[in-house]
Amino acid sequence: MFGRSKTNPQPVAKPASVSPTRAAGKGVAPSVISADLHVLGNIISDGFIDIDGKIEGNVKCRSATVRPNGLVRGDIQADVIHVYGRIEGQVKARSVSLYASARVQGTIMHESLSIEDGAFVDGKFKRTDKVFIDDEARYEQDVDAAALALPSFGFDNDNDLDEPKGDEELRILENLRLIS
Predict the structure, then answer these.
(1) Is the overall model pTM greater than 0.70, yes or no?
(2) Which of 47, 78, 100, 103 places its Cα 20 to 30 Å from the Cα of 113?
(3) Pairing between strand 54-56 and 91-98?
């Protein structure tokens, strides 16, 4: 009765389950900002972010959900964004869903948008055909923008004995002298 069976037992198949790492995409576990967490700074993820706490900074991820207790003070960029809580800043996504408890202050850039009755928006909606550009073009634009953002003080490199011509040059030279 309780002895070994003379026949070889067949292994029992375990039911397949979806692991949280596969659900988020690309083998990355979902990130959770819980209600008792307050983040000061930017967050970047290749996966899913579930925000129930406070973030004072920018968020960039594949997909984000801002829960009813969640607050983002900064820009948020993702492929898909579901908002139940508050966002104070720019929202940029292919698909944005605002639910009845949502409160958004800022510009919402979207390809598709759904809004439930009761959602509060103080800002603008910008419908775009293509919210995101490919990474290589974005890198080239960032490099070009960085080059344009460099201050031009009009230094004359031909003769180092020239006196600085403007107040901005004097201030920078004084700061450089203090650093040396």
Answers:
(1) no
(2) 47
(3) unpaired
